[in-house]
Amino acid sequence: MKNLRLFQRVGALYFSIFFLLLLSFHVSAQNIDEENKTEKLRLGVLDIAPSPHKGRIIGLTAWSLGSYTATMISLNNAWYSQYERSKFHFFNDNAEWLQMDKVGHAWTAYSEGLYGVALYRWAGLKDKKAIWIGGMAGTFFQAGIEVLDGFSARWGASLGDLIANSTGSALVIFQELAWEEQRFRLKFSAHRPDYKDFDTPLQLRAVDLYGTSIAEQLLKDYNGQTYWLTVNPSTFIKNPDSKFPKWLSIAVGYGGEGIFGGHFNQWTDDEGVYHDYESNIPRTRQYYLSLDVDLDRIPTNSKLLKVVLGAVNVLKFPAPALEFGKGGTKFHGIYY
Questions:
Q1: CA-CA distance, 240 to 231, in Å (whole number)?
Q2: From CA 164, how far away is CA 195, in angstroms rounded?
Q3: How far apart are CA 96 and CA 17, in angstroms?
Q4: CA atoms of 266 and 103, how far apart (whole Å)
Q5: Using CA atoms, how far apart are residues 31 and 219, in angstroms rounded to an integer?
């Protein structure tokens, strides 16, 4: 279930990126000013509507609700319908996966909130409306999965997930209201773990949990994922003559290693054989200090490039990093 939920979160995120990239095509738009409906302007689809654009708002809302409804129905039919139903209930999974899944929830809600704010601004909503409606997109989208979980006898809604979702959305909304920009950002990076030196049961366990393809492992494997909180110092510098690069950010990361189960590295395989690696494969937390590039602050006159940079600015830029953990301090020339 952990893999499915992570796939759904990341899939929703990149479906949003795909939609943003579709904005590179130009279309004609009319009646962009509700106060003067006789006025007709030709808007490029990358242009932000100067006032509420009825067509964009209806289209954006219909697309969001339609795709969300279709996703939830498909998910219910493909997965939850195979298991016993129950009354709505909560399940405490806060101690699982070294909390990597909770940080993942926050990052996904934050990222979807960024896209939501950008899209509703593009549709011409007044700024505070765009911030509140768009910023809550991640919490709204992911709440459906918690509802399905809550009615499943095998699982249950997770209060920890709901708090993480809300935290991600709140980070977007607070900063837009307070500073009209994102000074702190949640970002994501991943690499493909190498299990070839592990014995056969562990390799099979990794395949069962995380898949075999590069895409599956990048999306599912907590052992290769890192979540980052970045801060852009230039946004706090009031001196207009400061030489500090506006695109440079400082990043603090969190990851995990040796994760082969929700709580423990112990499991029973499909043949009924019990495996216990709890003592020789330690589950460890890892912390990182690195630099990052704030792609929104890269100067460009290209509207298309600006959209693309903004869409991928939820991903950490590969850079040197210091790693801190139980194994001591390590230096990575390039970490991603």
A1: 19
A2: 30
A3: 29
A4: 23
A5: 42
| DSSP for residue 278 | T
Please give the DSSP secondary-structure letter assigned to residue 123. T
Q: Which residue has the tokens 């001196």?
A: 239
Q: Is 195 helix (H, G, I), strand (E, B) or coil?
A: coil
As a dihedral over the C-alpha atoms of residue 272, residue 258, residue 160, residue 109, rounded to 10 degrees, the angle is -120
Q: Are 120 and 130 in contact (CB under 8 A)?
A: yes
CA–CA separation, 122 and 315 (whole Å): 22
Q: Which of 278, 318, 319, 312 is nearest to 298 (CA)?
A: 312
Q: Strand order of the sheet with strand 184-190?
A: 184-190, 225-231, 248-257, 284-293, 319-325, 328-335
Task: Give 212-241 pLDDT, tens digit per residue.
Answer: 888 888 888 999 999 999 999 999 999 999
Residue 115's identity, in one-letter code, is Y
Q: ∠ CA(206), CA(210), CA(216), 5° rounding?
A: 140
Q: Write out the two tokens for 321.
A: 């990093």
Q: Give 4's pLDDT tier (boundaries 50, 70, 90).
A: low
- Whose structure tokens read 């209060």? 159
